[in-house]
Amino acid sequence: MPQEKVATIDSLEPLLKPRSIAVIGASQKHGTIGNKLFHNILHQEFNGVVYPVNPNTRVVASVKAYPSVLDIPGNVDLAVVIVPAEIVHHVVEQCGQKGVRGIVIISSGFAESGAEGIGRQEKLLEIAHSYGMRLVGPNCMGIINTDPQLNMNATFSSVFPPVGNIALGTQSGALGLAILEYTQNLNIGLSTFVSIGNRADVSNNDLLQYWEKDPATDIILLYLESFGNPRKFARIARSITPTKPIVAVKSGRTTAGSRAATSHTGALATAEVACEALFAQAGVIRVDTLEELFDIANLLSHQPIPSGRRVAILTNGGGPGILTADACAARGLELPAFSDKTLSELKSFLPRRASFTNPIDMTAEAGAEEYSQALKLLAQDKCIDIVIVIFIPPILTQPEAIAAAIREIGPQFRQQGKTLVASFMGWRGASTKLGWEKGYVPCFTFPEATAGAIARACEYGDWLKRAKGVIPTIEGIDKQKAKQVVKAALARSATRPLWLDTASVIGLLGAYGINTVQSKPATTAAEAKKAAEEIGFPVALKLLSDTVIHKTEVGGVILDLNLQSEVERAFTQIRQHLVSIGRENEMQGVIVQKMMSGEIEVIVGVTQDPSLGPLILFGMGGVYTELFKDIIFRIHPLTDIDAKEMIRSVKAYQLLEGWRGAEPSDINALEKLLLRVSAMVEDLPQIVELDLNPVKVLKRNNGYVVVDARVMLA
Amino acid sequence: MPQEKVATIDSLEPLLKPRSIAVIGASQKHGTIGNKLFHNILHQEFNGVVYPVNPNTRVVASVKAYPSVLDIPGNVDLAVVIVPAEIVHHVVEQCGQKGVRGIVIISSGFAESGAEGIGRQEKLLEIAHSYGMRLVGPNCMGIINTDPQLNMNATFSSVFPPVGNIALGTQSGALGLAILEYTQNLNIGLSTFVSIGNRADVSNNDLLQYWEKDPATDIILLYLESFGNPRKFARIARSITPTKPIVAVKSGRTTAGSRAATSHTGALATAEVACEALFAQAGVIRVDTLEELFDIANLLSHQPIPSGRRVAILTNGGGPGILTADACAARGLELPAFSDKTLSELKSFLPRRASFTNPIDMTAEAGAEEYSQALKLLAQDKCIDIVIVIFIPPILTQPEAIAAAIREIGPQFRQQGKTLVASFMGWRGASTKLGWEKGYVPCFTFPEATAGAIARACEYGDWLKRAKGVIPTIEGIDKQKAKQVVKAALARSATRPLWLDTASVIGLLGAYGINTVQSKPATTAAEAKKAAEEIGFPVALKLLSDTVIHKTEVGGVILDLNLQSEVERAFTQIRQHLVSIGRENEMQGVIVQKMMSGEIEVIVGVTQDPSLGPLILFGMGGVYTELFKDIIFRIHPLTDIDAKEMIRSVKAYQLLEGWRGAEPSDINALEKLLLRVSAMVEDLPQIVELDLNPVKVLKRNNGYVVVDARVMLA
User: Fold this and answer.
1) Is B113 at the interface with chain A, CB within 8 A?
2) Would you say B170 and B206 are in contact if contact means Cβ atoms under 8 Å apart?
3) How far is residue B23's CA from residue B34's CA, in Å, rounded to a whole number?
4) Is the confidence metric ipTM above 0.90 for this complex?
5) For an engineered disulfide with B431, which of A612, B423, B443, B465 has Cβ 3.0 to 4.6 Å away?
6) Distance, CA of B694 to CA of B684 (rounded, Å)
7) Which of residues 33-72 of A touch B (CB under 8 A)?
8) Is residue B270 within 8 angstroms of chain A, CB to CB?
9) Which candidate in A113, A290, A665 is best for mutational testing of the B interface (most B CBs within 10 A)?
C-alpha cells in the first residue's frame, strides 16, 4: 500500500542518516561494484546494521545474504541498489513494500543513456514517489556521512575522507571519486558527500536545504554541470549564504555558446553571464578549478571570514614573501604598514637584518620564539585583518616547533576575529603538523595560492556586509497605458516574436517614465525638414525601419545637421544608400531627432535566459561594450542596491563620475532607469528583448535621454 | 703571484664541475651549516675529493681536516667558504695563493648588511679577481650539480634533487631551499642548481652563458628579484631562447611604484612594464608563481614545444574533462573537432555512452586498452597538436596499466612532434608511475593546471616561429637639422631637464618626417583670428604654455570653432579661466590648430627606464589609455616586427582595422611613426621623455597627424 508522499527536507534524513542499510546487488565477486560497496560499509564499521541482498548467494563477505529486501527481518532505512538497469524498478517496488525510506541507485542505464533509459528513469521515479521514498541517482557513486556516530561509506570509493564540516555534492561521479582522493591528501574534512548522478529525484536544491539545517555542516561545496531549477537554486542559495558559505565549481563555461542574437543585449548574454549573475546575486562563491575549490574550502572550514582586506605577511625568507605580496596585490588585497607599536616591538627582538615593511622577513635565523612573538603582535595590530605566515624549513630550525607556535597562537587570532593561514614551503612538515586540532590553521602548499582563497573569502565577506536592498515602488508609471500599447501591437500583427514599431516603443517607454529623445517621424524629405524646424537644430536623421537592425552599417544614421538643406541632403543620402544595396523597400522613412553630442553613452537592455527569466544589462556604450565587454548582467527583479552596484561595477564607471575634471553625470537618474526597466519587465511579461542603446547620460540632475530603443514582444 | 683574469664562460667550469673541493669552515659540530654542508658532499658520494679545512679541529666527519687550504696536499678546484664574514677575505686570499679556480661564499655579512658589509664585499671581489677566481655569493646557499659523473651537493639543503635537464638559478636562498624540497615531491629533474646570493661576481647573466653551452641543460629556470645588467640580460637571453627556453619568476611586480611622472608616458611606465617588455622581446617565458614555474618546467623538460594550439582532451570521466576544456578555452587554446577517420575509429571500440566531441569521455569503463587505442589515433590525427590525458582511478581499472599504456604511446607522440601531458587525478598513481623513463609524459596533480602551462608553451612556440625583424633604415630624416634644434634649445636654457618649446618640437618632429597638425601660435585674440583665417575653419584653440601640463584641466582647450567671433571669444575664455585660478602669467598665448574630429586617437611616447634605457609606448588614446590601460611598451630600438606587433597587441586594435563597417585607418603609417620615433631616440640621446598625444589616425593611405606633442631634454 503506497504511503503518502513525505515533505521534502526531513525525508533526506533516512538517506543521509540511516540506521539500517540494505545493499541490493551486494556481490561476493571481487572487483565488482556490488562487492566493493558492501565491503566499504563493513570496513568503515558502519554504526548500524547492513544487509546484503542477493538472490544468488547466501553469504556476502561473511555476512548472511537475503534473497530480497522483503526477506530482511528488521527495519530498512536505506537501500543501495546495484543491479542491472532492467530490474531496478522491480527491486525499488520491493523497497517500497518493505517500507524503505531512502534509496541510492548506483546502477547506470537510465536518462544518461538514451530514450529507453529515460523511460526507465521515469518509471523508477513514479514507483519511488508512490511509496514516498526519496531517491539519489541513478547513475551515481553513492553517499558518505562521516559523523562518527554513523561512519557510513556507501560508495564504491576506497577513500573515506577525514571528518570535517564541509558538505560536498557533485553532479559528476568521476569527479566525486577524484575529489575523495584529494580530500585525504589535502586534509579536507567532510561532513557529508553525495554523488547525485542523474538527479531523478534528489537535486542540488534538496541537498542545500538539508545542509542548511545540518549542524555538522558549516560549508557547502558543489560541483555543478547544470542547474535543475535555477530560480529555486537562486532562492534557496540566497537564504543559506548569509549563514553558511556555498562554494561552487560550475563547468561548461566556454562550451555553451551565446544564444540566438536577435537583440544587441541578447547577443551579449551568454549562459555564462546568466550563471555569473545568479551566483553574484545569491552570494555563492564561484571558483574555476578544483584546486581553487579545495583552497577556499580549506580556508573557510577553519578560519573566520576576513573582516577586511588588510594582509600581513610573516616569513623567514624574502623571496617567497615578495611573491606572496605580488599575488595579494594582484588579487586586490592590501598590504598596509604596521602600527608604530607593532613596529617598535618587532624591532626589539628581530635581528637588524630583518625587513619590517610588509612582508616582515624575519630572516633564516628566526625560530619558534620569533614566530610566536611576531604572531602575538600581529594578532593585536588593529591595522591587520589577515596574516599569512610562511615557513621555509632551514637547516637550523625544527618545523615542528614552528608548527606548534602557530597552532598555539591560533585561538588568539580567532578571538580577535582575524584570519590566519600558513604555508610550510616544500611540503615537509606541512598540513599534517597544523591539522585536525582545535584552532586549526590551514596550510597551503604554495603561499601564493593563499592570495586567491583569501580574496574570494573577502568578496564573500563584502557580500555578507552589503545591504540587501529592496525592490522600490516607483512613481509615475502608467501601467494601464503600457498594457494597452502592448495589447494593441500584438493585436495588429500575428508575427511572433514581434518587433514593436517606433511609435509604440516611445509610448511604452513614456508610460514607464523613461525619457526618450525628442523626435519626429518623417516619410519625405519635406516632412523631415519641417520636423527639424520644429525640434530645433542641430538634428540627426535615422532610418525608420522595422527590419534593419544595425542602422549605422547601411548608412542609416546621419548626425549633426545644422541646416534645412543638410536635412534634405541627408534624407536623399539614406535612401540612395539603401537603393545601392537593394534594400530600399525596407525604408519606412526617417526619424528626425534632437541631436545630442558629447554626452557619455550607456546601454541598458533586457533579454531572456531560458531558465532564469529576464536578465537586465547595463554597460558603457559603443566600443566599451563591444570590444572591452564592459558590461554587467543581473537577474530581474533588481533591488535598489542591485541597480547601484551594476552601474558602479563597470570599468569605465569613472567616466560617469566625471573624468579629468569633467562634470559628473546623472548616475542617480541611471539607477532609476534600471529600476524602471525592471518594473516594466515585471508588469509586461510579453517583453522578451529590449535594447536602450544608446542612452545619453546628462550632467548631474539633468537625467538621461534614450536615443534609440527597440522592444521585442512574444 | 696573481694570475691573469680568465675569460668568462670557461671559468665557471671549475665552479660547477670541480674535481676537488675544499670546505673552508667545515665543522665537526652538528647543526651548523659548516657541518651540514660537508656531510652533504660526503653523503652524496661526490665523484672527486673533498677536504675539510678548519684550523681548530683535526677531523671532520671522520675525514682528516687541514688547518688552511694551503696545507692541502693536492689540487683544489673549488672552495666553499663558511667562515665568519670578518675573515672571509683572509681565506679567499689563501685560496688565490693555492691556485683555487672557483669559490662559493656561503657566509653572510656582506652587501646585504649595510655599509661595512658593502666594503667587505668589494675587498673580497678585488682579491678574487686579482687571482682570476670566479666567485658565487656571498650570502648564498651553495651549488648543486646532479651529473652522475659528479654528484655534487655543495649546499646545506638535505635534498638532492632528481637528475634532469633543468638548470635553476635563484636570487633568494630561502626560495632555493623551498624549491629543492618541491623538486623531490614534484619530480622536477635538475642538471644544476645555483644560489647566487649577493651576485658579487657570478651573475644570472654569467650562468645563462654557461647553461647555453651546457649539454646537460635543456631548460633554464630563474628566480629574479632584480636584474644586474638588464641590457646584457636582454641580449644574452635573446641569443639563448631560440634554442633553450628560459622561464623566469620575477618578483616585486607590485612593490615597485611608478616613476616620477613628468610626462604622460612616464606616468604609464612602471618598472613592471619595462620588465614585461624585456621578457617579451627576449622570448623569456614569464610566470607569476612557483607553482606555474614547476608546471611549465615539467612540461618543457620532457615534451616538445606545441606546434599549434589545438588540444584534444581524453578522459574517463566527464566532469574533469569539461573543467579542463573550460581552462583551455580561457587560456586561448582551441578544442577542435576530430578528423572523420579518428571519429569513426573511436566509435568502433568505445561504448555508445562515450562522448566523442572534444573532450572525449570514454566513461568509467575504459581500461588500458581503450586508452592505448584512443591515444594511437590522436597521435595520428592531423587536427591535433596537444593531448591532455586524464585518468580518474575507478574501482575496476588499475592505474598502473593505464600508466603503462600512456608511457608506451609516448614515443609515437614525440615522433609526430606532438605534445602529450597527463593528469592522474587524486594523486594516487601520479607522477611516479609515468616518471623518469624514456618518453616521459609529465603528470599534473590537477588537469586544469595543464592549460596554463600549455598556453605558455604555445606562446613560446609562437615566439620561436615569429620573424625576428630588422631595424629598418628610414628615408626622409634630417638628422643634422634635428641635432641643431636640440643643441640650440639646450644652449638657450640652463634648466635640466628641459621641456622643449612648441616651435622646437614642431621643428624636431618635422626633421624626422613626423606629421604634425597644421597650427600657428598667436599671442593676442587678433593674431589668433588671423591664424584661423589662414589655416581655414574649423579650428581649435589650445593654451600655449611651457608649464601647464594638462591643458584640458585648466580650460585651455576649446574645440570646433567655426567663426572669427568664436575664435575671439575662445581666446578670452582661456585667458579668463587662467586668471580665475591665478595662473594667468603661465599663458604664453595660444596655438591655433586645424580642427581634426572624429578620427581615432592614439598615443605614442618615450620614457626612460633607469637601467633598460628608452621605452617606447603605443596606446589607444584618451580613456582607453587611462581607464583600460590599453597600452604596450617595448624597449628601444624597435624592429619593423616590433612596431607591427605593438599596434596589433592593443585590445582596441579593431578600431584601427575599421570597426562596424568603418573605413580602416592608416596602420601602416602608424608603424612608420613608431619606427621614426625609435630612430629619433637613437640619434638624439638627449630626448628623455616624449608624448605624442593625441595622434589622430587618418583613413588608409592618409597617414596620421600629431595633434599635441611634448619633448623633454636632459
Assistant:
1) yes
2) no
3) 8
4) no
5) B443
6) 22
7) 33, 36
8) no
9) A290
pLDDT value of residue B2: 42
Best CA proximity match to A663, nearest among A700, A695, A696: A700
Residue pLDDT, tens place only, A58-85: 999 999 999 999 999 999 999 999 999 9
Task: Give per-residue burial for A683-705: e unless 16+ CB within 10 Å, then b.
Answer: bbebbbbbbbbbbbbbeeeebbb
Contact state of A252 with B326 under an 8 Å Cβ cutoff? yes
Say how far apart CA A269 and CA A467 lie, in whole Å. 27
- Which DSSP symbol is given to B95? H
Query: pLDDT tens digits, residue range A79-137?
Result: 999 999 999 999 999 999 999 999 999 999 999 888 899 999 999 999 999 999 999 99
Least confident range from A29-33, A259-263, A631-635: namely A259-263
**What are the respective helix, strand and coil percentages of chain A, to the nearest 5?**
40, 20, 40
Name every residue whose Cβ is closer than 8 Å to that of residue B550 and which is 6 or more positions away in sequence: A660
Q: What is the band of A6 on the pLDDT scale with cuts at 50, 70, 90? A: very low
Question: Hey, is the C-beta of B581 within 8 angstroms of any chain A C-beta?
Answer: no
- Cβ within 8 Å, pair A395-B329: no
Regions in chain B scoring below 50 on pLDDT? 1-9, 255-260, 428-430, 436-438
Question: For residue A693, which of A271, A272, A263, A273 has the smallest C-alpha distance?
Answer: A263
Rounded to whole angstroms, the Cα distance separating A323 from A280 reads 29
Report CA torsion sign: A109, A112, A113, A117. Answer: positive
Percent of chain A past pLDDT 70, that is, above it, reads: 94
**Phi and psi of B557, rounded to 5°?**
-130, 120
Question: Chain A contact for B396, CB < 8 A?
Answer: yes
- Residues whose CB is less than 8 angstroms from the CB of residue B93 and which lie 6 or more positions away in sequence, other chains included: B127
Q: Is pLDDT at A18 greater than 50 in this prediction?
A: yes
Q: Alpha-carbon torsion B560, B564, B566, B571, what sign?
A: positive
Four-point Cα dihedral A118, A119, A125, A126, nearest 10: 160
C-alpha cell at B210: 654557461
- Note whether A167 and A300 are within 8 A (CB): no
- From chain A, pick out residues whose CB is under 8 angstroms from the CB of B173: 317, 364
- Domains in chain A, ordered, with CATH? 10-217 (3.40.50.720), 304-465 (3.40.50.261), 518-595 (3.30.1490.20), 600-713 (3.30.470.20)
Q: How many helices (H) and strands (E) does chain A have?
A: 24, 29
Nearest partner of B707 among B607, B594, B627, B626, judged by Cα: B594
Three-state secondary structure of B391-447 = ECCCCCCCHHHHHHHHHHHHHHHHHCCCEEEEEECCCCCCHHHHCCCCCCCCECCCH
Sole residue written with cell 553613452? A601
What's the CA dihedral at B449, B450, B456, B458 to 10 degrees? -160
SS (H, E, C) A537-600: CCEEEEEECCCCCCCHHHCCEEEEECCHHHHHHHHHHHHHHHHHCCCHHHCCEEEEEECCCCCE
Alpha carbons B465 and B467: distance in angstroms, whole number: 6
Q: Which of A463, A442, A464 is nearest to A453 (CA)?
A: A442
Question: Considering only CA atoms, which of A112, A453, A141 is closest in space to residue A289?
Answer: A453
CA neighbor of B124 nearest in space, from B142, B103, B141 = B103
Q: Angle at Cα B350 formed by Cα B344 and Cα B352, nearest 5°?
A: 90
Q: Are A396 and B652 a contacting pair at CB < 8 A? A: no
**Residue B462 cell numbers, joined:** 609562437
